[in-house]
């Protein structure tokens, strides 16, 4: 079965995190595992359901007052401990 994929704007709409924040997270390499398609000057990103879950979880930690780095560390740690 093929995994559903999402664009950057889909990720914005599904998580409520702004496009500028997501672009910053991509630039700082907090978000990984996505596909990037470049054609000349423009790039397109392709994300999965895991990215939606990840971004939503990071957003919750940020809303609780954690820094961006701590939020990603905790979410990645939590994801790695799920079996």
Features:
single chain, 83 residues, alpha+beta, Multidrug-efflux Transporter Regulator, Chain: A, Domain 2, two-stranded antiparallel ribbon, globular
List the helices and strands and how they pair.
Blueprint: H1 8-15, H2 19-27, E1 35-39, E2 42-46, H3 49-63, H4 68-80
Antiparallel strand pairs: 1-2
Helix pairs in contact: 3-4
Number of domains: 1
Main-sheet strand order equals 1-2
The helix-strand sequence is HHEEHH
Gross morphology is globular
The N- to C-terminal Cα distance equals 21 Å
Radius of gyration, whole Å: 13 Å
CATH architecture: Orthogonal Bundle
Average pLDDT across residues?
A: 92
Largest sheet: 2 strands, antiparallel
Contiguous uncertain segments of 5+ residues:
none
* CATH topology category name: Multidrug-efflux Transporter Regulator, Chain: A, Domain 2
Helix content: 40-55%
Approximate strand percentage = 5-15%
In the CATH scheme, the class would be Mainly Alpha
Number of helices: 4
Number of strands: 2
User: Helices and strands: which structural class?
Assistant: alpha+beta
Characterization of this structure:
- With 83 residues, the protein is α+β, with helices and mostly antiparallel strands.
- It has one domain (8-80): Multidrug-efflux Transporter Regulator, Chain: A, Domain 2, CATH 1.10.1660.
- It is built from four helices and two strands.
- It has a two-stranded antiparallel ribbon with strand order 1-2.
- A hairpin with a 2-residue loop joins strand 1 (35-39) and strand 2.
- Helix 3 packs across helix 4 (68-80).
- The longest helix is centred in the last third of the chain and has 15 residues, at 49-63.
- It is globular, with a radius of gyration of 13 Å.
- It starts with 7 loop residues before the first helix and ends with a helix.
- The model has no long low-confidence stretch (mean pLDDT 92).
């Amino acid at each position: 079965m093929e995994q559903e994929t999402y664009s950057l704007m889909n990720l914005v709409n599904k998580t409520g995190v702004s496009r500028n924040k997501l672009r910053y997270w991509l630039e700082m390499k907090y978000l990984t595992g996505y596909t990037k398609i470049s054609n000349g000057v423009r790039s397109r990103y392709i994300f999965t359901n895991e990215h939606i879950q990840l971004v939503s979880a990071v957003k919750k930690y940020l809303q609780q007052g954690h820094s961006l780095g701590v939020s990603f560390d905790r979410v990645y740690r939590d994801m790695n401990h799920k079996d």
